[in-house]
Amino acid sequence: MIELSALRKVYPSADGPVVALDGIDLSVGRGVVHGIVGRSGAGKSTLIRCLTGLEQPTSGTVTVDGVTLTGLSEKQLRTARRNMGMVFQHVNLLDSRTVAANVAYPLEVAGVPRDRRRARVAELLDLVGLGHRGSAYPAQLSGGQKQRIGIARALATEPAVLLCDEPTSALDGETTRQILGLVRDLRDRLGITVVVITHEPSVVREVCDEVTLLEHGRVVQSGPLTDVVTATGSPLSRALVPVPDLPPDAGRHLVEVTYATDDVATRDAFAAVASLGDDVEVVSATVEPLAGRRVGRLLLDAPRGGTDDVVARLRTAGMDPVVTGRDGVGADVVGTGTEGVA
Amino acid sequence: MDGFWSELTSNRVITQMLPEATVETLQMVGLSALVTLVVGLPLGLLLRSVAPDGLTPNRTTSAVLGVVVNVLRALPFIILAVALIPLTRALVGTSLGWEAAVVPLSIGTIPFFARLVETAVRDVAPGKVEAARVMGSSTAKVVSQVLVREALPSIVSAFTVTVISLIGFSAMVGAIGAGGLGFLAISYGYQRFDATVLYTSVVVIVVLVTLVQVVGDAVARRLDHR
Ligand SMILES: Nc1ncnc2c1ncn2[C@@H]1O[C@H](COP(=O)(O)OP(=O)(O)O)[C@@H](O)[C@H]1O
Ligand SMILES: [Mg+2]
Description:
heterodimer, A: alpha/beta, six-stranded mixed β-sheet, four-stranded antiparallel β-sheet, elongated, B: mainly alpha, binds adenosine-5'-diphosphate, binds magnesium ion
């Protein structure tokens, strides 16, 4: 549904060119919810702007639903954009229009006649659970309700692709869960392909089927959620399956194991750890539901010089451990929750 | 009070000339306001559009328009009005009368209003523009349906301020032959020491200003759903 190949975007700036995207190859299949994560400035927004054709890539190609956007005229791009809906962090509803008129806006732009517009708007408002608020103005809605309207508007022209740039970053926890539930529900009902930009690991955990980590405009890690989280020691595994802080007296040489219950049952994992003996201690651990499975991550403190032995024995038990320093354990590759508007 | 009322109704300047002067002021201000709106609104939108962070950035146009607008705004109005007498003659055929006054009044307020429009439109969140563009809006539609429509309450307030300053300017051009309430207040009230004429003219001007402000505020409030 979405194909990016060798995508580069260089911005000119006063202190030399800024490479925002540095050779991105990415493919997202139909009906998939794909997360894009990375620190502020990693190039996430630039990537989504290239997808909408608002930004012309410096080189490389962007193909959405069989249409190659690179090299299209402005007019052709405007038509191509009707096949994409976009949801923004700050929603960006027009304050001068009622909720219904906001949802109708993309239909007006597309030249849909008034009576069909009205029917479609009613349908969309029902879809996002706000059928009774059509005549309200955006200022009269809560943050979560506004974002629902933002989603209804994005879906108005029945796009094949829904692009979301930090859709829940301005919302509280409960509202975030509701909005993500709506996105998942829409994907299931409409079969729409979704790209979600976020810096919140919880968003990826709750809604994404696949995830890509960007750093300095490059893809660092990408794949189905279960694959990336079970890639022990990988940046996304650490970001998406966080463990509680290590006790201060934990050693400097740790062994890290991540598993999904399809591969190793938690009971077996614990048995394997227990068999390592008294001097191997579990210093931090978590087991949580993720992508329809249970994913566990354990950090073991091995005695001096014993890490290789521990790794070898866990491997025999069917696990994929790595040796790690305590600094890497909580590596924050996604950014903190305090990222600004960027 | 009785004495004042009889003075008011027996003063021939007031009974015969005040109504006519009021109508002249209204015509002068009304037509100038219309010209200012018709020219100043697009000019303000253009100023915003060609700015470096506008929809159609254009360094040269932006610089040239900026200088012209700033120079016109920097000149005290009465000096501008005198300096424009030759142009007024060329355009209207005379520099006297309310029709002629429309030329300096419009040229004096267009840059002022254009800057206010530019500021109002600049305040529209860039995200709204981006959203409209993603939905496939053309630049012209983004300007009319997003920028102007979202900034409309502020534009109405800006227009209100502009009309009020036009009323003030119209009194000044009265002094250089445009007629209207300004002429009445100065020639009878100031030069012939007729205090009744002076203060009555002032009261009429204050009433006009108040009316414009009240109507402008009400319209702006009606349009504002933020
Ligand atoms: N319009 C622009 N002009 C110049 N530099 C830009 C522009 N937009 C983004 N950048 C730069 O490109 C890089 C990536 O930005 P962005 O895509 O916004 O990152 P993210 O959304 O991941 O925070 C940053 O270094 C940013 O400063
Ligand atoms: Mg961003």
